[in-house]
Amino acid sequence: MEHLNIYKTIGIIGGMGPAATCDLMKKIIRHTNSPDDQHHLHICVDSNTNIPDRTAAIIHHGKSPVPELVKSAIRLQSLGADILVMPCNTAHYFYQDIVSYLDVPLIHMPDETSAYLKKNQITRVGVLATDGTIQSKVYDKSLKQYAIEPVYPTDKHQEIVMSLIYDYVKKGIVSKEDLPDKEIRDILADLRNQGAQKIILACTELPIAFKSLGISQNQIDPTDILAQAAIQYAGAQIIMNAVG
Predict the structure, then answer these.
(1) Per-residue pLDDT tens digits for 62-111
(2) Distance in angstroms (rounded) separating the CA atoms of residues 85 and 73
(3) Catalytic positions
(4) Do residues 236 and 41 make contact, with C-beta atoms less than 8 angstroms apart?
């Protein structure tokens, strides 16, 4: 008997960067409770590398990413996407500019992450993110809804975080021996000393680096939370203990 997929189709607005896009797709697949190919979710991906850098747009008045983000979203809608996701935390600064053009929901990754933290009774959290995410207060606004206090790296430590994102992961340098292991662990220790109960990896490149470094304790992965939210929105069952 031919299987008729009853689930909603997920559309991924990708390319920010390509590795982070693949990371989200892998996590959707790993978290989906399916006995075979046919019961997995239908996923449409637009890895649109024409989308301008979000941090450059926010801080340095660079080219706006909104037109390309909207193009991707509409393209995915035309392919049959019922739900959209965007594996870039910084891009959520432009969330309202995007959704006004859409006919389907766009899941808000920082909001989903903040709701998850509230559910797990976290009240103070460290945030590792791009300069654009930090300066635009993308996570501050989401966390404030749940009375969660954010803690950020020092200026010197933030330079290391930005380097990890742009000089390593976005350039495809992800081998453990090539990454600034000690520096990252020092940053995490400093955030914990400031009272952070958990650390949000609030840039989609960071889970890739942290996996390579073997750092998992007390980390919150918004990409993983987004994957699970997308599966729920699509109407499928989640494997809660899947390794993302």
Answers:
(1) 999 999 999 999 999 999 999 999 999 999 999 999 999 999 999 999 99
(2) 9
(3) 88, 203
(4) yes
Q: In terms of pTM, does the model score above 0.90?
A: yes
CB distance 23 to 87 below 8 Å: yes
Give the up-direction half-sphere exposure of residue 110: CA atoms within 13 A in the CB hemisphere: 28
Domain 110-221 has CATH 3.90.1570.10: no
b or e along 76-112 (b: 16 or more beta carbons within 10 Å of the residue's beta carbon)? bbeeebbbbbbbbbbbbbbbeebeeeeebebbbbbbb
185 has a pLDDT exceeding 70: yes
At 243, is the pLDDT very low, low, confident or very high (cuts 50, 70, 90)? Answer: low
Quote the CA–CA distance of 139 and 133 in Å, as a whole number. 7
> CA torsion 18→21→25→27, rounded to 10°?
110
For the chain, the structural domain boundaries read 10-108+224-234, 110-221
Domain 10-108+224-234 = CATH 3.30.450.20: no
